[in-house]
Q: What sequence folds into this?
């Protein structure tokens, strides 16, 4: 996939919410990158930090989650040999994160339930059973932008469902699993 065009990254806070999406083992990761990019040439990175936008979920605004995302990405990139540029110093890559979550309620209705009947415990049609499950679908995106050209060269997306309140616990796993795909093999 060729990624071309100007990138206007959204707030880091968005990434936080997205990271919360990733719930350990069921995290699904997908990556895209510019085939023409020589990733071995990137040695330094800097953050594109912006306040969360109105389209982002409230969890994105949680300072604990934001810090966990930043720390997770910093650790993962350092393990890849990239050095974080100091404030105001030039860098090879710019990092932007985005995160989105949608609250979901899954309601399953059964036209029968087990209850007493004249013949013992058998399914009856008298009362239906209903199961209600609340969860959140979340997406985390990590964008890497070439600082010189301002073109996105790599994007990692992690998606998963998680229980409300579990955001902070799942961030490290999401970041780790997403950035395990960087740099692309052979690039």
A:
């Amino acid at each position: 996939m060729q990624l071309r065009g100007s990138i206007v990254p959204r707030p880091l806070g968005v990434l936080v919410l997205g990271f919360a999406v990733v719930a350990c083992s069921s995290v699904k990761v997908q990556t895209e990158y510019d085939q023409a990019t020589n990733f071995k040439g990137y040695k330094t990175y800097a953050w594109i930090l912006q306040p969360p936008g109105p389209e982002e979920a409230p969890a994105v605004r949680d300072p604990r989650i934001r810090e966990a995302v930043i720390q997770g990405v910093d650790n993962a990139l350092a393990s890849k040999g990239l050095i974080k540029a100091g404030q105001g110093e030039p860098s090879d890559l710019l990092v932007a994160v985005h995160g989105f979550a949608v609250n979901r309620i899954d309601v399953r209705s059964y036209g029968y339930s087990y209850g007493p009947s004249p013949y013992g415990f058998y399914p009856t049609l008298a009362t239906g059973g209903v199961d209600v499950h609340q969860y959140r679908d979340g997406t985390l995106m990590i964008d890497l932008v070439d600082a010189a050209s301002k073109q996105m060269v790599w994007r990692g997306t992690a998606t998963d469902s998680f229980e409300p309140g579990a955001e902070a616990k799942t961030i490290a796993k999401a970041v780790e699993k997403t950035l395990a795909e960087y740099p692309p093999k052979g690039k």
About this structure: The mean pLDDT is 76. The CA atoms of residues 14 and 157 lie 12 Å apart. The first helix runs from residue 13 to 21.
